[in-house]
Amino acid sequence: MIVAENLTRVYTMGRVEVRALGGVSLEVEKGEFVGIMGASGSGKSTLLHILGLLDRPTSGRVVIDGTDVLALSDHQRTLFRLNRLGYVFQDYALIDELTAQENVYLTSLVRGADKEEYLKRSAEILRRVGLGDRMDHRQSELSGGEQQRVAIARALVNNPSILLADEPCANLDSQTSKSILDLFARLNEELDQTIVMVSHEEWHKEYFCRIATLQDGLISDMTECRKA
Amino acid sequence: MFAGLGVSSFLAWKSIRRGNKGTLALTIMIIALIFVNLVFLPSIISGVVENFNTQSIDFDFGNLVVEPREGTQYIGNASDLQQTIERIPGIVGTSSRVTAGVTYFYRGRNAASTLYGITPEDERTVTRVADYMTEGEFLSNGDTDAIVMGAILAGVEEEAGGLPSLQGVEVGDSVEVAYPNGETRTYRVKGIFETQSFGVDTAAFVTNREMSEVLGLRDQASVILVKTEVNGREAEYKKELLSYGIQEEIWTFQEKTGGVIDQAIQSFNIINAISTLVSLIIAVVVIFIVIFINTVNRRRQIGILKAIGIDQQIIINSYVLQVLFITTVGALAGIALAAGVTTYLTAYPLVFPGGPVYPVVEASAVFRSIASLFAVSVVAGYIPAWQIVREDILTAIRG
Ligand SMILES: Nc1ncnc2c1ncn2[C@@H]1O[C@H](COP(=O)(O)OP(=O)(O)OP(=O)(O)O)[C@@H](O)[C@H]1O
Ligand SMILES: [Mg+2]
Q1: Where are the alpha helices (DSSP H) in chain B?
Q2: Among residues A155, B77, B107, B288, which is most buried (max CB within 10 A)?
Q3: DSSP per position, B101-115
Q4: Residue of A nearest to B12 (CA)
Q5: Which residue range(s) make up the domain with A193?
Q6: Nearest by CB to A112, which of B3, B311, B397?
Q7: Looking at residue B171, what is its pLDDT?
């Protein structure tokens, strides 16, 4: 469960201050599939970065599964990301020197998983995102949509407590987008996977159980959860 | 910790295998050349020292030199003393010599130099002059009317130079010798030798029997040269000889040559230290630049690794491991290259005054070079990796 209270994020660029978040509070229950929507520049990525422990807010509080994550040291935050979170970047962010499958199982390797197990698991998850025949390709040998799907597989491989996805379908055609969203929905239903996903596509709304809309760094609208 | 090291080596290995091969090869080559540079100069210096020592032992002094005690001109009962010394374990031979400053006369020319009276068979057990005959033969014990002469003293026709030279003595010629006591003798030249050692090549030998007769000596010696089984343990043998109650003065060959070579070695060592320092600085700079460019190019990648939960230390270690790999391969290539250079210089040696110098690669110099290369590499690899890894994740990912 995520509890974010009164998050602000101010970027100072010389004399100019950009207020990317102006006091956002949000709670995400275990097993929820929350959509964060809003115009470009409204602060969606900024919020997700803070929830994903990739950035620290200027002020506010973030508690994830009972842990005050802002009180953690950088090293502890790294371990928290490794063990608890799965993050899909807006621009995929794969390691080019590694193949698709190596990208996916790298964190399992760090977690000390058994070789046979992580090979099997990474292959299985790549097949689930439709890349069973692209496992040995490198980033430069994959299309944008394929790279995005590798990034999704990487985020899911360790069954994270929370999956954070920043426009995971931005570069996919609607067919593939739909299959990814179906996958998310199935994980959410079957495994009670908590998902926070940023999107600006209207038709994605039907997948979310709850939608938070950002406008100029503030939540302008929050729907009730459909599932509960 | 170990899992971490496994991930570091996984990342390092992928990076080496899938990174830029040209840069990799170039870096390895530079390390190899630096290694050769680190090993080469000391090996030549060792070669010069080795050469000097061997020459000193083989032609000038043997390993130990026994001289008359203070205030006397000759060692008395020389043959008894020789026998005493030869009984000591580890001593392989002694040669008793009478030394005189004489004037040589030949076809109206003359030269002042040293003449040694030796027992040829004894001399052969200590020095190797007899093995370096360029013409004729060395003396035999009965050759009382013969002389063998160094190549410089025998000289070349119409060329005197600054050294004592009779300008063109050949085997079979007659040479007249004026002794310090006024006696003169004429000897037939039996052979000419060339050792590349000035002291010997400007001198000549006659038999001890002949010289003692001329100078009126009975079983006396100016000096007794001693040859030991192994080189390099002269100080121990000197102690051993002293413990046998020998009253004469005993010197190691190092003590006899001391000043000259020590100064040369000191100068060489300064040159070597400068060269080593420069090589290592180049190594630091090159490795630093390579790793720095490498890490800067991978800022984004490092940011991603951190973002997905990979600890900084694992990332830094993966760079250090890459450097270790590069240095290991570089050092191996360097060893191969150095072996090639050494083999070449052994086949075609550098010529110094005193003869050809063969490179002597000392294990300690190789280990020192390898150790300093590794130390330098790890530092030069660690720092840039450490700097970049500390960067903020999102800044790094944005590139
Ligand atoms: N590193 C930064 N420095 C300065 N300003 C920043 C930085 N990152 C984001 N911003 C600003 O903060 C605001 C919110 O940015 P953010 O990336 O969160 O928007 P977004 O909602 O994700 O937009 P998009 O849909 O285009 O991805 C923007 O005005 C942006 O210019
Ligand atoms: Mg965004």
Answers
A1: 2-18, 21-55, 78-87, 120-126, 151-154, 198-201, 208-215, 234-243, 253-297, 299-307, 312-347, 363-389, 393-398
A2: A155
A3: EEEEEETTEEEEEEE
A4: A97
A5: 2-224
A6: B3
A7: 94
Structure tokens given for A155? 């985020």
Is ipTM over 0.90? yes
> Own/partner pairs for B1-6, CB < 8 Å, 24+ apart?
B3/A109, B3/A110, B3/A111, B3/A112, B4/A110, B4/B311, B4/B313, B4/B314, B4/B317, B5/B317, B6/A109
Tell me the CA–centroid distance for residue A9 and ligand 2, in Å. Answer: 14
- Distances, alpha carbon A137 to alpha carbons A92, A132, B300, in Å: 15, 11, 20
The pLDDT tens digits of the residues spanning B129-174 come to 999 999 999 999 999 999 999 999 998 776 667 788 898 899 999 9
**Interchain contact, B3 vs A110, CB within 8 Å:** yes
The CATH number linked to A26 is 3.40.50.300
Q: Are A136 and A105 in contact (CB under 8 A)?
A: no
Backbone angles phi, psi at B109, to 5 degrees: -105, 155
Predicted TM-score (pTM) of the model is: 0.77
As for how many domains chain A has, the answer is: 1
Q: Which two tokens stand for residue B159?
A: 């060329």
Ligand 1 pocket (Cβ < 6 Å) reads A 11, 13, 18, 20, 38, 40-46, 90, 200
- Distance from the B333 Cα atom to the nearest Cα atom in chain A, whole angstroms: 26
- In angstroms, the CA A46 to CA B32 distance is 49
